[in-house]
Backbone:
């Protein structure tokens, strides 16, 4: 029986005219997977468009792309939509969410919350990054993971595994990294491009956000806040808040780290991180969000005091359940 990678490879080989999209506010896995699929389609001589409702973040403007990333949805929509790293259909943004044709959608993802909204769905939570799934599609097409294709896969996998430090890192993950290295991908050159993207404004934001640190649940939870006023005062944006939660994750004794980022007045994006067996996807699900076992998030409305109490109570509920 053909594997999902081979089924998708066959479709890419036999069809033409594709739209590739990932979730809004794309991270390294979303950008890397988008780029990697584009390089695969270019190698096959196919027509394709790279689309993201949020555009390409500044932090990834160094990534080699087979075509520009457009924020304008093509009209008419290409024959096939390839959606990557979206735990829910609406994560592609309002315009594409409304335009997607399920019978013409290929859904490649590793989020447990994914409802399988395409005609061809490859959803597998055992993969640490969608980029690792794209690598298997490339293998099914006998394409070498070298050059920009290999670098895109590396970007996806390295960032979504915390540079191979998260619990999602498995022997196959490290074997893929070794294959990429042998194919000519140079982590020593790529890692600084990924990591060294800070601006003075973002460093000031980090200082201000860390100053808001609160410890909850007898030191098991650390919480920081990036409200609109802090972002305005430091000359930063929501994009600059990405990843700041990981600094809280480094605190000794903390099992769950969290950041509340205010996107609109009293409209907050919460991001959660954990280690080991603490399943914070359950916390996010309680609050209408989603994600992975050790990285999840969602949105809340209300005053800072209200959303803080809601988040702390939900985390306490899940941690107590794990202790029983």
Residues:
């Amino acid at each position: 029986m053909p594997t999902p990678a081979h089924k998708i490879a066959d479709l890419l080989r036999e069809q033409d005219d594709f739209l590739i999209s990932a979730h809004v506010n794309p991270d390294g896995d979303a950008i890397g997977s988008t780029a990697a699929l584009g390089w695969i389609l270019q190698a096959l001589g196919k027509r394709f468009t790279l689309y993201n409702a949020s555009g390409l973040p500044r932090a990834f403007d160094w990534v080699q792309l087979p075509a520009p990333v457009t924020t304008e949805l093509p009209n008419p929509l290409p024959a096939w939509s390839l959606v990557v790293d979206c735990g829910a259909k609406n994560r592609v943004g309002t315009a594409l969410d409304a335009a997607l044709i399920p019978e013409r959608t290929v859904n490649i993802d590793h989020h447990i919350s994914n409802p399988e909204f395409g005609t061809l769905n490859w959803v597998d939570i055992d993969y640490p990054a969608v980029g690792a799934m794209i690598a298997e599609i490339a293998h099914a097409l006998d394409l070498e993971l070298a050059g920009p294709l290999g670098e895109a896969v590396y970007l996806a996998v390295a960032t979504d595994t915390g540079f191979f430090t998260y619990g999602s890192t498995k022997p196959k993950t490290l074997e893929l990294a070794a294959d990429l290295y042998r194919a000519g991908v140079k982590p020593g050159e790529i890692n600084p491009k990924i990591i060294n993207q800070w601006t003075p404004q973002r460093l000031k934001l980090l200082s201000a956000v860390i100053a808001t640190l609160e410890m909850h649940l007898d030191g098991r939870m650390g919480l920081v806040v990036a409200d609109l006023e802090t972002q305005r005062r430091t000359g930063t944006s929501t994009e600059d808040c990405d990843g700041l939660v990981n600094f809280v994750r480094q605190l000794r004794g903390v099992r769950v780290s969290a950041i509340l980022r205010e996107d609109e007045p009293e409209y907050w994006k919460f991001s959660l991180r954990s280690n080991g067996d603490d399943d914070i996807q359950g916390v996010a699900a309680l609050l209408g969000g989603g994600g992975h076992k050790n990285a999840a998030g969602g949105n809340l409305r209300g005053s800072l005091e209200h959303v803080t109490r809601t988040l702390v109570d939900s985390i306490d509920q899940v941690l107590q359940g794990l202790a029983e």
Notes: The chain has a mean pLDDT of 96. The chain has two domains: 4-195, 200-323.
